[in-house]
Design a protein that fits this description.
InterPro entries: Cyt_P450 (IPR001128), Cyt_P450_CS (IPR017972), Cyt_P450_E_grp-I (IPR002401), Cyt_P450_sf (IPR036396). It contains 8 helices and 4 strands, in the order ααααααββββαα. By secondary structure, it is mainly α. It has one domain: Cytochrome P450 (Cytochrome p450, Orthogonal Bundle), CATH 1.10.630. Strand 2 and strand 3 form a beta hairpin. The chain starts with a helix and ends with a helix. Bound molecules: protoporphyrin IX containing FE. Protoporphyrin IX containing FE binds next to helix 3 and helix 8.
Length: about 210
């Protein structure tokens, strides 16, 4: 389907660029590009999946956790109602400052994505031979980092199957750690992580303040 769309767009170029397809086409037609049509189509397909399914899945689980944990719902409601009370005009929309002040919301989001394990594993390739606990992994081998096993490891997270947003109290996460890889890590760290968190926070804000 994407291939057909690309062909159509190529045969009838639009006067003004308005979507991602137009930018991909422009790049494809530029002289020094490293992009091929195959890569471009893969990119479009992957982006459709990683930018949509991930966040909607996390939000779906967030609703489930809210339903099952009334104390978390109460605390979340309090945080968001306080944000609205502090506003000069209650009808104004959310501001970036308000978003950054959502302490419990971030704990709630971290815990949701820890348990969601939307990408349960990460893939890497060894650049050099690695010796680990008596095992040798030759250079050039594919490795699967099973992040889900870290997120559900009782040695790392007390009572790991329990939804407990309070476990994140006082912990500021700005990227991946050895124990938290819900958005991957290193050079391939999810480029949409901050965007996904904003989307989730805005959704939660509307949900707990408007839904009756
Ligand atoms: C709750 C939502 C999301 C989760 C849990 C998530 C998780 C991940 C994970 C685990 C990776 C693999 C990173 C690695 O291999 O180290 C990844 C990569 C990626 N994510 Fe996300 N993601 C989310 C939302 C998004 C959104 C909204 C976008 C785009 C708008 C996005 C775009 C990408 C892209 C393009 C990559 C590939 C990065 C690369 O290979 O350099 N993700 N994501």
């Amino acid at each position: 389907m994407l291939k057909r769309m690309l062909e159509e767009r190529k045969s009838q170029p639009r006067k003004e660029q308005s979507d991602f397809f137009d930018y991909v086409l422009e790049e494809l037609q530029s002289k020094d590009t490293i992009l091929t049509e195959g890569i471009a189509l893969d990119l479009m397909f992957v982006l459709l999946f990683v930018s949509f399914e991930t966040t909607s899945w996390a939000i779906t689980l967030a609703i489930k956790f809210l339903h099952e944990h009334p104390q978390a719902l109460k605390e979340l409601k309090e945080e968001h109602e306080a944000i609205i009370r502090r506003r000069e005009n209650a009808s104004y929309g959310l501001t970036w400052q308000e978003y950054k002040s959502m302490k419990f919301t971030f704990q709630f989001i971290n815990e949701t994505v820890r348990l969601a394990n939307i990408a349960p594993a990460l893939f890497r390739k060894t650049l050099k031979e690695i010796n680990f606990k008596g095992y040798t992994i030759p250079a050039g081998w594919a490795i699967m980092v099973y992040s889900q096993a870290v997120h559900l490891n009782p040695a790392k997270y007390e009572d790991p199957l329990q939804f407990n947003p309070w476990r994140w109290e006082g912990i500021e996460l700005n990227g991946a750690t050895r124990n938290f890889m819900a958005f991957g890590g290193g050079i391939r760290y999810c480029i949409g992580a901050d965007f996904a968190k904003v989307q989730m926070a805005v959704f939660l804000h509307c949900f707990v303040t408007k839904y009756k």
